[in-house]
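Example (one chain per record):
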Amino acid sequence: MLVGIHNDLYGKFCPFLQRYEAILDHNGIKHVRLDASRQDFWETVSGLDLFIFRWLHYHDHHQMAQAILPVVQNEMGVKSFPDLATCWHYDDKIRQYFLLKQHNFPIIESWVFWDRRIALEWLSTATFPVVFKLKGGAASANVLLIRNISEATKLVNRMFSKGIKSGRIPMAGNTRWMDFSPYKEVHRWGGNVLRKLRGEDISPYWQIHKNYALFQKFLPKNEYDTRVTVIGDRAFAFRRFNREGDFRSSGSGKISYDAGAIDLCFVEKAFKISSKLKFQSMAYDFLYGENGEIFFCEISYDFVDTAIFNCSGFWDSSLNWHEGNYWPQYFQLIDALGLPDLRQPDLH
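Predicted structure:
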């Protein structure tokens, strides 16, 4: 048995990928590191039992995944993680909305426009406040609460002209400054200087968002969201509380792992969606409607692995509780390789 793991951004292997390797080593399973730019890449992939490509929000990763994964899975017949059913809509809130709405799953009502004139017409009848989003991005970086038609009109006009870069929505309330940390800024700038000296790309988010507009209904009185992550027949859950004086919880870092506080209706719904759409691994961000209804606003096959490990256990699809700390990579490998007796090493 041979597993291939594609490298991370800038050709590196981050701790997330190294944990796959540690689990495979612990179980005596051979693995190889891959880079799609290497001349032997395709020949190596043809001999794999599993191809792992953890592609992220970076625009370089987007274009690589869209070029590689359909060929690996559909033309070569090599099992992949993530597979296309799990990731074709990743980091694209418009694709997610169209997919989930088609199946009548309770994703928050949204409005997508490809025409500036029609978008402006809708604004004249819209109820404010409303949430504006770019279709990609993480940690609430591209999410903004719009309180009136004047603010919304400026954003629509911007989106259908010069566009907006990720993390650079030109309006007060952007999380870039709300989450500002001198240490992180120095670290980011220092890293960019080193990459520039080495002749490497310093801007992984180089695409401009333009010629569309995406708005989502605002659900007030949610002090937190509930993140439910389903991996096969297992669901991990925790609550993420909003930033102080803000409505956004993603990226706040304010996490509660109290399993007794989790609404199991969220867990049941997440299992149902993952089963119907055959997702290998998926995280759901749940909120309550104004009358206590269940909604979710986004999904993502990728997530922070330490947040899953910090959960004290998981529920199975029958809502039985299983105590213990587990790395998501462990269960992803169990399912993808069909090896239920795989052992998890001590990775602390």
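Caption: Residues 224-332 form a domain with the D-amino Acid Aminotransferase; Chain A, domain 1 fold (CATH 3.30.470.20).
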